[in-house]
Write a structure and sequence with these properties.
2 domains; Rossmann fold; disordered C terminus; 15% strand
């Protein structure tokens, strides 16, 4: 099958540090190439892939220091892609609802995975404007935020079982890994660890718009002797942190669409202590691969109770349900179903019809 994978342009594929969507796009693309599909990845020019790479912009937009209109860059990428839609049997976009106006005019079937929260003003209404769209959610909880949208299915994220190694011994300390924002609640994670008398290491990205929150709520708490701050980490550093931890603290206060770090931790054998928001109950089996708690006292008690859980059970759940292979299997199923139901005639365009794409691709 000839497939176009379309990534956001803010970060490279795969991301160097923060970037869940870009990591998922990378792993899916590599899996599809390994399965023999002819894959073209539309992404920033500093991306790395085994697929054919079409460089929509020279470098990822967040790495650029010059002024850049991100909307213009995305519009150009989608315009060039859909002008060449006859090159593909299927197009799979990961740019949320940006591709929807183009999809109705496409000569190839289009599937769109939505990676963000959908309970924001106007978003469900935008999705309902395109009843012919084929939308994929990353959790049932996310899908429930827009019940009137045109859903083709749900595909949970997967992680590389080779990249995330099982660490049977674990460690005594706790970990928090995520964006430093009020809804991720790193301040609460620190307070829980301190109240439990257990060391905690926190790592993550500070967005400019969330700097004030970090300085007000997080920075003062870093002075406590039980707290270690790493800043933003890459996969190698994250593996070392998660694998050597007693548990991942995930005390979110928002409807998390998925929460990739939860399955990264579980792949290392590290259970998750979380509040029941968004997709948490789809990922964590309470009392088996983590503890779901609500109040502050319950979260503190969970820090002690979590030691009774079997680390191997966490790894097994990821192997069975959240591996890259499981994710690719589900996407392939949806691809073939979409082609079978499509009014389009799927075909591979001969090379003579691909000069514009190939001129800009590796």
């Amino acid at each position: 099958m000839s497939i176009a994978q379309v990534a956001p342009l803010a970060l490279p594929v795969p991301p160097r540090h923060y970037g869940g969507t870009e990591r998922v796009v990378y792993d899916l693309t590599e899996a599809l190439v390994a399965r023999g599909h002819d894959v073209t990845l539309f992404a920033s020019g500093d991306s790395q892939t085994s697929a054919r790479l079409v460089r929509a912009v020279p470098r990822s937009l967040w790495s650029e220091t010059a002024l850049h209109d991100s909307v213009a860059s995305l519009l150009r990428m989608h315009g060039e892609l859909f002008y060449s839609s006859f090159d593909f049997d299927l197009i799979h976009t990961h740019t949320d609802y940006f591709a929807l106006p183009f999809a109705a005019l496409s000569l190839a079937p289009v599937l769109t995975t939505l990676h963000g929260r959908l309970d924001l003003p106007d978003v469900p209404e935008v999705l309902r404007l395109y009843p012919e769209a084929d939308l994929i959610s990353i959790s049932h909880a996310q899908q429930a935020q827009a019940p009137g949208a045109s859903w083709a299915g749900t595909v949970h994220h997967g992680v590389s079982l080779e990249r995330w190694r099982f660490e049977p011994a674990g460690g005594d300390g706790l970990a928090f890994v995520g964006r430093f924002s009020p809804e991720k609640a790193p301040h609460l994670a620190i307070d829980v660890a301190v109240a439990a008398g257990v060391p905690i290491t926190i790592a993550g990205r500070i967005e400019p718009r969330e700097r004030a929150y970090f300085e007000r709520e997080v920075a003062p708490r870093l002075e406590h002797p039980l707290v270690r701050y790493l800043g933003e980490v890459d996969d190698r550093q994250k593996q070392a942190l998660l694998g050597a931890s007693r548990a991942l603290l995930f005390p979110i206060d928002w409807p998390e669409p998925f929460g990739l770090v939860m399955i990264e931790a579980m792949a290392c054998g590290t259970p998750v202590i979380a509040r029941a928001r968004g997709a948490v109950r789809e990922i964590v089996v309470d009392g088996e691969t983590g503890i779901i708690a609500e109040t502050f006292d319950e979260l503190v008690a969970a820090v002690k109770d979590v030691q009774r859980l079997e680390r191997a059970a966490c790894r097994r759940r990821v192997e069975r349900h959240f591996s890259v292979a499981a994710m690719a299997d589900r996407y392939e199923e949806l691809y073939w179903r979409r082609l079978a139901d499509s009014p389009h005639v799927p075909f591979k365009a001969p090379p003579a019809l691909r000069p514009r794409l190939r001129a800009r691709a590796e």
